[in-house]
Amino acid sequence: QVRLVESGGGLEETGGSLRLSCTASGLILRRYAMGWFRQAPGKEREFVAAISRSGSPTVYADSVKGRFTISRENAKNTVYLQMNSLKVEDTGVYYCAADAASSDLYCSTRPSAYDYWGQGTQVTVSS
Fold it and tell me: Which of 60, 87, 112, 114 lies at a 20 to 30 A Cα distance from 106?
């Protein structure tokens, strides 16, 4: 059974940092492109960042470019999202997702491309 478990969320002040982790079980992470998405109250789920199976390329939403960094550690079956210079608008539930991509050099921004999803971790940024 495939499971993706996010951790590292919490309450942080504007300008602060958080690092989210997503640990996978039941699959071999190096075979999957990985993505992070988020959903704020009353809004649709939106793309945040993605990383290919090989670790490059990475793709970011314009709203987080330069502030967030996605990385992966296949030996630990874990993907990370380092979030710096947090803003109130970064508040939401953050989900990681796994895509059985066919290429080492591909990662998608579309939620429909992803095969497995975690339950999410709450990130709240206060002003």
Answer: 87
The two three-digit tokens of residue 63, written as one number: 């709203």
DSSP state of 92: E
Residue that is written with structure tokens 């993907």 in the block: 79
Which of 88, 120, 118 lies closest to 9 in space, CA to CA?
A: 120
- For residue range 6-55, what is the model confidence (pLDDT) as tens digits? 999 999 999 999 999 999 999 999 999 999 999 999 999 999 999 999 99
Q: How would you class 21 by CB atoms within 10 Å of its CB: exposed for 0-12, middle for 13-18, buried for 19 or more? A: middle
Residues near 65 by Cβ (< 8 Å), separated by ≥ 6? none
